[in-house]
Amino acid sequence: MNMDVVEAVKLALRTLGANRLRAFLTMIGISIGIGAVIALLAIGSGVQQYINDQFTSSGTNLLGIVPGRIQRGPGGGQNTFAPSSFLTMGDYRAVVAGTSNVEAHAADFTSVGNFAYESRTSQVQVSGVTPSFSRVRNWRAISGRFVEEADNNSRARVVVLGQTVVNDLFPEEDPLGKQVKINGLPFRVIGVMESKGSSFLGDQDAIAFVPLSTAQERLFQRQAQARTGERVLSTIYLQATSDAARPQIEATARDILRERHRLGPDDADDFSIISQTELLNTFGAVTSVLTLFLGAIAAISLLVGGIGIMNIMLVSVTERTREIGLRKAIGATPAAILGQFLIEAIVLSFIGGVFGIVLGVGIAFGVTRFVDFSAIVQPGAIILAVGFSVAVGLFFGIYPARRASKLNPIDALRFE
Amino acid sequence: MIEATVQSNRQATGLKNGKATPMPVIDVQDVTKIYKMGDIEVPALRGVTLQIYPGELVAIMGPSGSGKSTLMNILGCLDQPTSGTYKLDGVDVEKLNDNQLAEIRNRKIGFVFQSFNLLRRTSAIDNVEQPLIYAGVKARERHERARAALESVGLGNRLKHHSNELSGGQQQRVAIARALVTNPAIILADEPTGNLDSKSGAEIMCIFQRLNMEQGNTVIFVTHDPRIAAHTRRIIRISDGRIVGDEPVDDPVIACPDEPLPVM
Q1: Backbone angles phi and psi of A415, in degrees to 5
Q2: With contacts defined as CB-CB under 8 Å, which chain A residues touch B120?
Q3: Minimum CA–CA partner of B97 in chain A
Q4: By percentage, how much of chain A surpasses pLDDT 90?
Q5: CA neighbours closer than 13 Å in the CB half-sphere of residue A373
């Protein structure tokens, strides 16, 4: 007695096809909603993957010690510098001497320098580094060489440029061997770093490296000096021999630094030890929350699309009152009428959802063409989107469909 | 070509075409219908008793407000009586629920309306197939039966035309085919020529007469138009909710011209 689903879907397609513009406009609402959800989830997944890659590409089993305290809140890390907290060269030496299972270690002092070459200028980050920096950060010079021990010993005025700096200052020349001025001091370019691209941390190539001693004693003399007169550091890097060795190194380094900084048992650390795993988790939490939040906003547009479907279905029920009356007269049961309108709404939102997936994937990959990472469309997100769009059609189609099924055939047939 | 179709249909409906069975296809006993308008009760039917036998060609006549529309709705199982009994083809109708009524309408009744009520933007054959969809008939058989029904009303070569591409007379023929296609016990036609010019109206009446005479279909017109009633063989007059006359038509007008119905 009742229409089967295949017939109902065919009928729905024909009915929707008879009013293409309206069906299309209604579908757009769903497409935008689903598209937005898909795009944001794909971009979110892409960002997460990218962050993962970034951390693993900047060296493994790495611990970083920075001055000040990073407070962890639900939103991620926040750097709060205690006013008198410094990491000094003495700290560095003591930590390196006091810890075991350290495969490599490095230190840097970082500030900002004004670069000039001929008429061009550029303001970028300058890091004074120890030679092993290149190793622990897994970052090498692609031409020339990196800072070496001899440069450090002689406080040499040599610089290794990041790719962005090269692009800014030497658009058409080979920078190797050229003289640039940093804060007015002449430096010889000895190398160019491989490009790391830009990340959530900004453009990683907008940087230049000089020997640590050069930075501390020539370039940033005043900044790089504690009140005790000792030279200070921005970061101490410790690379553990294995992941298992990391906690022990962290604990030992903490004890050494607390003692050196004369912290009482009740005082909080005035430095922070950051491990990649921790950073990864923190950033992961941030991006997850962000993705969820954006997804929720996108879902609101899906809700609006659903209301659009309900609206158009209600109009459709009124417009087709006579058709409903006729169908009842020729034998449609209330359930068949309910099914017809419900399936129409579901087909509408399903097609909208499929368009939305195409739209969302397009947007996700379109947007990520302009950045360094690519979107990741997870099969789960697609299944979720299709399921969600069908659910939207079902939810917002029920009320109009029930109204249609309850129409009295006599009144419906007489309806003008 | 029409003759051939008619022949096959006659075989299909051979039972109905046989001698009139003693059981009436419509058996209405003392049916009343009272509409409630707020606190006021408006009686539309005040006790109607009526039998119609298979193969009859009947007109139910009455002015507007006489209760003939109410009677038609009850006969068509679109509405149920307040009291009394109604047996359609042996089935007690007044006890049925909405789903059972839908099934009865689907199987036993073919409706033809004044305003055709075809589905817009839908081909003739798809329109005719609709009742079979609700009857659960498979696509291939549906198609064949719809084509046969359209051929029997002379629209064999208009199968794919959409309703808006057909004249009023042609649209009403599609509607008749739709009413026929389920092989119903009765065809209920509500002012079927009301929206047609006289020539198309005569063609439609001719089709009904042929269906009745050649295939033995029971056809019931509900009309206020004496010219339609004159084409039938029995006129039931209703006024003020009661049957006030029920007499045979001795010399019905024959709508069909001598030459066969033009194939369109």
Answers
A1: -60, 130
A2: 18, 323
A3: A333
A4: 49
A5: 19
Q: What is the pLDDT of residues A338-363, one digit of tens each?
A: 999 999 999 999 999 999 999 999 99
- At A1, the pLDDT band (50, 70, 90 cuts) reads very low
Nearest-by-Cβ selection for B178 from A1, A330, A336: A330
Token digits of residue A143: 């031409």
Taking alpha carbons only, the member of B206, B176, B221, B213 closest to residue B61 is B221
Q: Which residues of A touch B117 (CB under 8 A)?
A: 322-323, 325-326, 329, 413
| Domain B2-23+54-79+107-248 CATH superfamily | P-loop containing nucleotide triphosphate hydrolases (3.40.50.300)
- Mean of pLDDT values over B191-202: 92
**Cβ neighbours of residue A162 under 8 Å, at least 6 residues apart?**
A124, A192, A193, A195, A204, A205, A206, A207, A208, A209
- pLDDT (tens digit, 9 = 90+) per residue, B58-76? 999 999 889 999 999 999 9
User: Cα separations (Å) of A376 from A283, A354, A364, A383?
Assistant: 18, 18, 8, 14
DSSP symbol at A206: S
Mutate which of B33, B119, B132, B171 to disrupt the A interface (most A C-beta within 10 Å)? B119
Q: How far is CA A246 from CA A64, A65, A238, in A?
A: 11, 13, 9
Can you give the pLDDT at residue B258? 66
C-alpha to C-alpha distances, A102 to A87, A132, B164, nearest whole angstrom = 19, 13, 86
Q: Domain residue spans in chain B?
A: 2-23+54-79+107-248
* Whole-complex ipTM: 0.86
